[in-house]
TrEMBL record:
GO terms for cellular component: cytosol. Belongs to the class-I pyridoxal-phosphate-dependent aminotransferase family. This is Aminotransferase. PANTHER family: ASPARTATE AMINOTRANSFERASE (PTHR11879), ASPARTATE AMINOTRANSFERASE, MITOCHONDRIAL (PTHR11879:SF22). It comes from Frischella perrara. Its EC number is 2.6.1.-. Coiled coil: none annotated.
Length: 397
């Protein structure tokens, strides 16, 4: 049965991590996989997380199954973080959340729900987007299409092209937006642009769905959900796949959530019962440890404050590295203007490097960047900046 199978291509991002690991060069630099690293290139466990884990170790009473939708305390805290503590949507029971094993699983539940339980058979993704989006939605059976998003000449959103593409999307299709810190470009719509996008969604009656994987990594916890909240408050229905991998540093615990908003409590209840059937036949119920950590922190004011401070440190370090990167490139003699990199949000930067330049950096200098030219700014440090910029300037020459 298996003999006829051919080898699948390595994942474009995770595959690169393996090649990096095997590279024996001492000065190698990894700017590929989307994981936060501190000044010592370590992906740290947050103190707030360690404290929550100590608490759980002492106080956890049972390892029995969680409900299909996960921990109630986790789910409410997730809704409040995304929609605001006093959201009328939550008070009106229009919001339902299922804890999921990471943002990826939340996206897959979203995809299965859309394809199997609603009339939606097609989803539109930004061009470019996180490469796994296509695979996740396609595997669920949805037809995947793209809308224009990025203007490489101006390093900005191609906003006119975006609006014109959105105007032509048929009623009932789903359209995926990155809530913040667009991956890979680092460029998000402004509040005014979100308003314009919302106006098209309202007029054309397609279904906006959100991927919120980096809340807190852009402008801040509140700033990063301006678009999501605008849509949630204005539209009858919305789906949000969110992740705690990055903002809690809980990558390998697999913590995320799917949040569904419906027109009223009754519809929300019915729709969510269908979401639960999808989960039941997929992984049955979510793992508990990561969800418990997040719930414990978000429901404990002191720990929550400590977490927000730690998140702020991560966000500010990335921003400092952006500034230093642009400055060092100049000092090393680049004749190109890289100032756009300072304006981008989140961990990633679309550098404008071509695939050929990316490969030269990898082969000749031990610098790992994904083929699209997307750079993980969190991989930069005070120590590797000089070598990094020197090498880029040489490759650009
Ligand atoms: N969505 C985007 C845009 C991402 O960049 C990522 C992770 O890199 C995810 C979703 C998946 O997150 P998780 O690791 O929680 O599955």
């Amino acid at each position: 049965m298996f003999e006829s199978l051919v080898k699948a291509p390595a994942d474009p991002i995770l595959g690169l991590a393996d090649i990096y690991k095997a590279d024996e060069r001492v000065h190698k630099i990894n700017l590929s996989v989307g994981v936060y690293k501190d000044e010592n290139t370590v992906t740290p466990i947050l103190n707030s997380v360690k404290k929550a884990e100590s608490y759980l170790l002492e106080n956890e009473q049972s390892k029995s199954y969680l409900p299909i939708e996960g921990l109630a305390t986790f789910n409410l805290a997730t809704q409040q973080l995304i929609l605001g503590n006093d959201s009328p949507l939550i008070q009106d029971n229009r919001v339902k959340t299922a804890q999921a094993p990471g943002g990826t699983a939340a996206l897959r539940i979203m995809a299965d729900f859309l394809f199997n339980k609603t009339k939606t058979k097609r989803i539109w993704l930004s061009q470019p987007t996180w490469p796994n989006h296509r695979g996740v939605f396609h595997s669920a059976g949805l037809e995947v299409k793209e809308y224009r998003y990025y203007d490489p000449q101006n390093h900005n959103i191609a906003f006119d092209a975006l609006l014109s593409d959105l105007e032509n999307i048929p009623e009932g299709d789903a359209v995926l937006f990155h809530g913040c810190c667009h991956n890979p470009t680092g460029i998000d719509p402004t509040a005014e642009q979100w308003q314009q996008i919302l106006a098209v969604a309202t007029k054309k009656r397609w279904l906006p769905v959100f991927d919120l994987a980096y809340q807190g990594f852009g402008g801040g916890l509140e700033e990063d959900v301006v678009g999501v909240r605008l849509f949630a408050n204005a539209l009858p229905e919305l789906l949000i796949a969110s992740s705690y991998s990055k903002n809690f540093g809980l990558y390998n615990e697999r913590v995320g959530a799917l949040t569904l908003i419906a027109e009223n409590a009754d519809i929300a209840d019915k729709a969510f019962s269908q979401v639960k059937t999808i989960i039941r036949t997929n992984y049955s119920n979510p793992p508990s440890h990561g969800g418990n950590i997040v719930a414990h922190i978000l429901n404990n004011p002191e720990l929550k404050e400590e977490w927000i401070a730690e998140l702020t440190v991560m966000r500010q370090r990335i921003h400092r590295m952006r500034q230093l990167f642009v400055k060092t490139l100049q000092e090393k003699g680049t004749n190109q203007d890289f100032s756009f990199i300072v304006k981008q949000n989140g961990m990633f930067s679309f550098s404008g490097l071509t695939e050929e330049q990316v490969l030269t950096l990898r082969n000749d200098y031990g610098i790992y960047i994904v083929n699209s030219g997307r750079i993980n700014v969190a991989g930069m440090t005070l120590d590797n900046m000089s070598l990094l910029c020197e090498s880029i300037v040489k490759v650009l020459a």
